[in-house]
């Protein structure tokens, strides 16, 4: 929505008391904006502090969720909630590095339970695997947008993820069928047009 000069002028004409009242009313309705402003204005924690907390949160919650791997639908719903918390962290802090590192950490921690996942019927874990493959693709797209100085830190996660995928026959096959080249799981080998590649794969009905 674009705001006209007249509308902006009318808002500027409000008294300080009216502006304060309006701001608090808006913040009450938008909790995410409230958290973002708190972080930017007075929060003593830095982006790094909050990312470290999120890392601990991801590890703990995936570990707790691992008890329910046998119930694939519920397990995936918990993973989605953890992912939503990562998204909220990113929106509050605009943590570009964490947007990649936290999602790669989430994937890596899920795949720590590869043995349990491999014992499940393929039909039961298909949606989880597709969800993971989509996250890998999106992470690769984000990596290409960041400075190369960060790539070495991401590569540790990517190597771990590739190793775990190759140990899981069904997931390995699903990655291949959905166009994920394992050579791309190294930052410098990610194609420059990885975003276009993903769009083309989706247009052909894959990654779903």
Describe the structure.
By secondary structure, the chain is mainly α. The chain has one domain. Helix content is 74%, strand content 0%. The protein has 11 helices and no strands. The chain has helices spanning 5-12, 16-29, 31-41, 47-65, 72-93, 96-111, 114-118, 122-145, 151-166, 169-177, 194-203. Helix 4 runs antiparallel to helix 5 and helix 5 runs antiparallel to helix 6. GO terms for molecular function: hydrolase activity. This is Deoxyuridine 5'-triphosphate nucleotidohydrolase. It comes from Chryseobacterium gallinarum. Keywords: Hydrolase.
TL;DR of this structure?
GO terms for molecular function: hydrolase activity. Keywords: Hydrolase. By secondary structure, this protein is mostly helical.
């Amino acid at each position: 929505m674009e705001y006209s000069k007249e509308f902006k002028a009318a808002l500027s004409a409000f008294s300080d008391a009216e502006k304060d009242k309006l701001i608090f009313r808006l913040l009450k309705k938008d909790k995410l904006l409230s958290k973002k402003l708190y972080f930017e204005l007075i929060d003593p924690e830095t982006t790094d502090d909050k990312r470290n907390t999120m890392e601990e949160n991801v590890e703990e919650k995936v570990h707790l969720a691992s008890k329910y791997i046998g119930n694939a639908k519920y397990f995936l719903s918990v993973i989605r909630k953890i992912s939503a918390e990562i998204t909220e962290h990113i929106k509050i802090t605009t943590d570009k590095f964490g947007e990649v590192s936290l999602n790669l950490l989430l994937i890596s921690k899920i795949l720590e339970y590869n043995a349990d996942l491999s014992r499940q019927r393929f039909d039961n874990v298909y949606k989880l695997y597709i969800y993971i493959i989509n996250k890998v693709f999106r992470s690769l797209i984000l990596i290409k947008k960041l400075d190369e100085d960060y790539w070495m830190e991401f590569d540790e996660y990517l190597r771990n993820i590739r190793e775990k995928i190759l140990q899981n026959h069904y997931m390995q096959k699903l990655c291949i069928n959905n166009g994920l080249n394992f050579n791309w799981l190294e930052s410098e080998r990610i194609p420059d047009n990885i975003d276009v590649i993903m769009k083309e794969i989706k247009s052909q009905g894959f990654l779903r």
